[in-house]
C-alpha cells in the first residue's frame, strides 16, 4: 500500500494519563480534545508522518477543582501553553503490528524527544463505507522535564504528585478520500 491521509475519529478515540497520588494510588484522567495529521500506510508505520496535538485545557480527571488547578500556572498554564504536541521522527517495527515511535514532545514551552510503544490494531470498513484503522499505545514522561514541578511534601514523607506520567492512547483513524 501507499501512504494516505488519515484523521482521528474523536468519538472512538481516547488520550488518557495516570500519575501517582500521595505515593499510594494513581489518579487517572483524559484529554477530551485532540487532533492529528497522519500520513501513513497502516500496514507499515515505519514511513508514517504523524503530528498529534492535544488541547491541554480539555483535561478531565472527574474533579472540577483538580482540573482547574491543572489548567492553572501551577501546572499546564493553558493560557500561555495551550497544547501538547507530538511530532514523529522515527518509527521502528519491533514485532507483528508492534512499533516504537520516537518523537518530539512539546509541552509547557519545552520540547524533548520521547519514546512510545504503538500497536496497529487492524483495519476495517464501517457500515457507511469509511475505511478505519485502529492504533493503541503508551509511553512515560517525567513532568519535571517539562517544567511541571508544582508539588507538596507529605507529612509521612514523599510528595503529593508523582513525577512520572503514563500516557495511553487508543486511536481510530478515518482514511481521507
TrEMBL record:
Domain named Lipid/polyisoprenoid-binding YceI-like: residues: 5-174
InterPro entries: Lipid/polyisoprenoid-bd_YceI, TTHA0802/YceI-like_sf
Coiled-coil zones: none
Domain of life from the UniProt record: Bacteria
Gene3D superfamilies: Lipid/polyisoprenoid-binding, YceI-like (2.40.128.110)
Family: Belongs to the UPF0312 family.
Protein's recorded name: Polyisoprenoid-binding protein YceI
Organism, as annotated: Peribacillus huizhouensis
Amino acid at each position: 500500500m501507499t501512504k494516505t491521509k488519515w484523521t482521528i475519529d474523536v468519538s472512538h478515540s481516547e488520550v488518557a494519563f495516570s500519575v501517582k497520588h500521595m505515593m499510594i494510588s494513581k489518579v487517572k484522567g483524559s484529554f477530551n480534545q485532540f487532533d492529528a495529521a497522519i500520513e501513513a500506510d497502516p500496514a507499515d508505520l515505519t514511513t508514517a508522518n504523524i503530528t498529534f496535538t492535544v488541547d491541554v485545557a480539555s483535561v478531565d480527571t472527574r474533579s472540577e477543582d483538580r482540573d482547574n488547578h491543572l489548567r492553572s500556572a501551577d501546572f499546564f498554564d493553558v493560557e500561555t501553553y495551550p497544547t501538547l504536541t507530538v511530532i514523529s521522527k522515527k518509527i521502528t517495527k519491533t514485532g507483528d503490528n508492534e512499533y516504537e515511535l520516537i518523537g518530539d514532545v512539546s509541552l509547557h514551552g519545552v520540547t524533548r524527544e520521547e519514546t512510545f510503544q504503538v500497536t496497529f490494531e487492524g483495519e476495517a470498513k464501517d457500515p457507511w463505507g469509511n475505511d478505519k484503522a485502529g492504533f493503541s499505545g503508551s509511553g512515560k514522561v517525567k513532568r519535571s522535564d517539562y517544567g511541571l514541578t508544582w508539588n507538596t511534601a507529605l507529612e509521612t514523607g514523599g510528595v503529593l504528585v508523582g513525577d512520572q506520567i503514563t500516557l495511553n492512547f487508543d486511536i481510530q483513524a478515518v482514511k481521507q478520500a
